[in-house]
Structures are given as structure tokens and as C-alpha cells.
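> call design_seq(struct)
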């Protein structure tokens, strides 16, 4: 399995921390090349260096983009084109992962997560999904957004 993803390019959104980081490390461990879009450049570069140090191969590609804005997903697609990258595996992970009863937490940044999932996710999935089908290879993993209403507010 170590080299099973050797010819695979995996794009993992929101890999600068949390679940996305782990979701990026697994295909990297199997030999995939990684493309890493998120906002936190330092964390992305640190992850790219870790992947390179642990697994070698082609360096991970860092793309700094805010997927909650209309420009963000388009920027990612533009960068893929400019860097001549073709994605084989798309992992839609970026989002807000806060925990606890919904009504006890401030409204912000919850709508930002909706912006990522309603704006960014369909744009990337539509374009990259069409390319995956055209290549005859297809892998899309989408982590569903969490809206935790919490037990303390159940009646
Ligand atoms: N943790 C759970 O138990 C759980 C359960 C169900 C579903 N989920 C879902 O799984 C995903 C990850 O959760 P997590 O707990 O790992 O969250 P997290 O630790 O807060 O990480 C969220 C990731 O999404 C990125 N992100 C957030 N807003 C972004 C934006 N506007 N543009 C680009 N990237 C953005 C962040 O990167 P930057 O800040 O660098 O941009 C970060 O890498 C979320 O979609 C969440 O809703 C999580």
C-alpha cells in the first residue's frame, strides 16, 4: 500500500489543522502528491515540509486561499491550471469545526462555514469532478458540516 498512491494527486482543503491535516497525511503516507489550499500559509508550509521530510517525493503544493469568498475557489482552480496540476482525489474538508451547544456559542464564525460549503465546495467539486470523470479516475470525499445544537437546548 506504501506506493499505492504514487501517481495520485490529492487536493485536501483545510489541511492546515484538525481533521484535514490527518486526511492529508494519509494519502501522503501512501505516496500521493498533495495540493493544500487553506488560509494559514505558515501551517500549510509546515505540513508540506513534514510530508516532504517523512515521505520524500514531489513537494506538496501550497495554495493560500479563502474558500468562503467567491474568488477563493476560482483562485485554487487558476493555480492548479498555472502549475499544470491535475487532481485525482478531492477531499472537501475545509469548514468550521467548533464544538459545544450551538446557542451558547457566538454566531460568528458559523456563517463562514456555510460560505465555505455553499460557495467553495460546489465550485471546486463541479470543475474538478468533471475532470476526474474525463480522466476515468474518480475520488471525492466530502466531510459534512457539523451543526451541533447541543443537548442542553433540547426540550
Ligand atoms: N471535528 C469534528 O468532530 C467534525 C465533525 C463533523 C464534521 N466536521 C467537519 O470537518 C471539517 C474539519 O473540521 P475540524 O474539526 O478539523 O476543523 P478545524 O480544526 O477548525 O479545521 C478547519 C480547517 O478548515 C480550514 N478553513 C476554515 N475556513 C476556511 C476558509 N474560509 N477557507 C479555506 N479554508 C478554511 C482551516 O484552515 P485555515 O484556517 O488555515 O483557512 C482548517 O484547516 C469541517 O468542515 C467540519 O465542519 C468536523
Amino acid at each position: 500500500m506504501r506506493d499505492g498512491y504514487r501517481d495520485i494527486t490529492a487536493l485536501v482543503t483545510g489541511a492546515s489543522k484538525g481533521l484535514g491535516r490527518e486526511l492529508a497525511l494519509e494519502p501522503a503516507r501512501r505516496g500521493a502528491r498533495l495540493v493544500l489550499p487553506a488560509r494559514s500559509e505558515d501551517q500549510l508550509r509546515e505540513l508540506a515540509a513534514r510530508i516532504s521530510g517523512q515521505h520524500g517525493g514531489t513537494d506538496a503544493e501550497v495554495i493560500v486561499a479563502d474558500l468562503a469568498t467567491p474568488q477563493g475557489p476560482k483562485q485554487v482552480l487558476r493555480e492548479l491550471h498555472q502549475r499544470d496540476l491535475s487532481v485525482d482525489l478531492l477531499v472537501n474538508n475545509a469548514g468550521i469545526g467548533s464544538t459545544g451547544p450551538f446557542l451558547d456559542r457566538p454566531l460568528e464564525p458559523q456563517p463562514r462555514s456555510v460560505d465555505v460549503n455553499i460557495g467553495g465546495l460546489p465550485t471546486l467539486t463541479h470543475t474538478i469532478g468533471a475532470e476526474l470523470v474525463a480522466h476515468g479516475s474518480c475520488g471525492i470525499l466530502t466531510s459534512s458540516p457539523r451543526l451541533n445544537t447541543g443537548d442542553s437546548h433540547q426540550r
